[in-house]
Specification:
Structural class: alpha+beta
Shape: elongated
Low-confidence stretches: none
Mean pLDDT: 91
Number of helices: 7
Bound molecules: FE2/S2 (inorganic) cluster
Largest sheet: 4 strands, mixed
Strand content: 5-15%
């Protein structure tokens, strides 16, 4: 689905972002810190921001997309209020990460990498987060949950009702 980025509502942030773009535009690898700033600032990289980068940095938008899609930390869709990351690294994979992912997707009616149209939940697979001793691992917002079982996913989701979002 398409997500609308409200340029007017982000006017001040965009002005700050332009300063970052101008600071890095001449640097050979300047595109990465600019993308990183956009991701941190807006939570994702909206199309309007790619167009702005292209204009200011004198690059093709297609090139910016090409660079951004190479790095898994950049996303073109906004994350949900509740952000679920299922580690799909080797240790988690062999201990059932796929079943956990399937259960979340089934309960939320989402596919990996998607955000619900209501903006409440998003789910993605991520590479090893360095907590293999706790495999399989799920991160919800900033909370790490270890030794998760697919049968526990429903109860885990209930800990994150949309009305009471943990930061
Ligand atoms: S493989 Fe999942 S935390 Fe390392």
């Amino acid at each position: 689905m398409a997500f609308e980025f409200d340029v007017e509502a982000h006017k001040e942030e965009i002005e700050e972002f332009k300063k970052v773009v101008r600071r890095h535009k001449k640097s050979r690898n300047g595109i990465l810190p600019v993308l990183q700033d956009a991701q941190n600032r807006f939570g994702y990289i909206p199309e309007a921001i790619v167009d702005l980068m292209a204009y200011e940095m004198e690059l093709f938008s297609s090139y910016i997309y090409e660079v951004a899609t190479f790095y898994s930390q950049f996303t073109f869709i906004p994350k949900g209020k509740i952000r679920i990351s299922v580690c799909t690294g080797t240790a988690c994979y062999v201990k059932g990460a796929n079943e956990i992912m399937n259960e979340f997707c089934h309960l939320l009616n989402l596919k990996p990498g998607e955000t619900g149209s209501d903006g409440n939940y998003s789910i993605q697979g991520v590479r090893c987060i360095g907590a293999c001793g706790l495999a399989p691992v799920v991160v919800i917002n900033n909370d790490i949950h270890g030794n998760v079982k697919a049968s526990e996913v429903e109860a885990l989701l209930k800990e994150y009702p949309v009305e009471e979002v943990k930061a």
